[in-house]
Write a structure and sequence with these properties.
single chain, 240 residues, two-stranded parallel sheet, 7-stranded mixed β-sheet
């Protein structure tokens, strides 16, 4: 299956080369699109250098550089839009750049897509494994997802994890809807859109390890924005 893996990157230079290589090694049909928001650590230049040095990456690794940081959701949308325009990918994947999501788990998600699902979530809840999270992060994540399930749809357990698999029809649906929320709450917004559109969605449990390299971008301001955003998304989901 020809698959595009979209990696939204900001200050992930220490991880990204190793991650891309692991993704490419997993399957000859995998290609990678890195969307970099002008990372001050030089992630974009790092990718360009790797492309110049690794001939095997040519035609399989693509770099989109944006002028400023504009959030994970916008970066993923840009990568998906680029991939859809190529008209050669059967599946699309979004995942983080810090090895929180295991490259070896990509195969399981794609297998479920091939079984007929439109969207597959690599989920931490209810049966996944989370390693390395501090207690306050666990509490916030549990509360946010419980709230999202209550306000949006109980058929989904993990609304806030960014390890997802899409068929092209699901990508087209997402791109037809303007992005309303910034930050990680956009992950909940996209699921609301896909659920309301009648997409067939499933999930599988993953091993999620908290980043041990790089710096977390989650702030208290984003936490507050996420909680208010869930109410907004839930209201729109229920009222149409």
């Amino acid at each position: 299956m020809n698959t595009l893996i979209v990696l939204p990157s900001y200050n992930e230079r220490s991880n990204i080369i190793e991650l891309i290589q692991a993704i490419l090694d997993a399957d000859i049909g995998h290609q990678v699109c890195v969307v970099d928001d002008s990372s001050p650590d030089g992630t974009g230049q790092c990718i360009r250098d790797a492309l110049a040095e690794r001939s095997a990456w040519l035609g399989r690794v693509h770099l989109i550089e944006r002028a400023k940081k504009d959030g994970r959701g916008g970066a993923v949308r840009e990568g998906l839009a680029w991939g859809l325009a190529q008209a050669r990918f059967e599946a699309f994947v979004e995942m983080d750049c810090d090895f929180s999501h295991e490259p070896k788990a990509i195969r399981e998600g794609l297998t479920l897509l091939a079984a007929g699902y439109d969207v597959v979530i690599g989920a931490r809840y209810p049966d996944g494994t989370i390693v390395g999270w501090p207690m306050q992060r666990r509490v916030f994540s549990f509360f946010a997802n419980t709230l999202a399930r209550t306000l949006i749809d109980r058929s989904v357990h993990d609304y806030t994890n960014g390890f997802r698999f899409y068929r092209s029809n699901a990508v087209q649906l997402l791109l037809e809807h303007a992005q309303q929320h910034k930050g990680y709450i956009y992950l909940s917004e996209t699921l609301s859109i896909l659920l309301r559109s009648g997409c067939k969605i499933t999930s599988f449990p993953i091993y999620f390890k908290n980043r041990d390299r790089g710096v977390s971008n989650t702030s208290m301001r984003e936490v507050g924005s996420a909680l208010s955003g869930i109410f907004s998304i839930g209201w729109k989901h229920r009222t149409g």
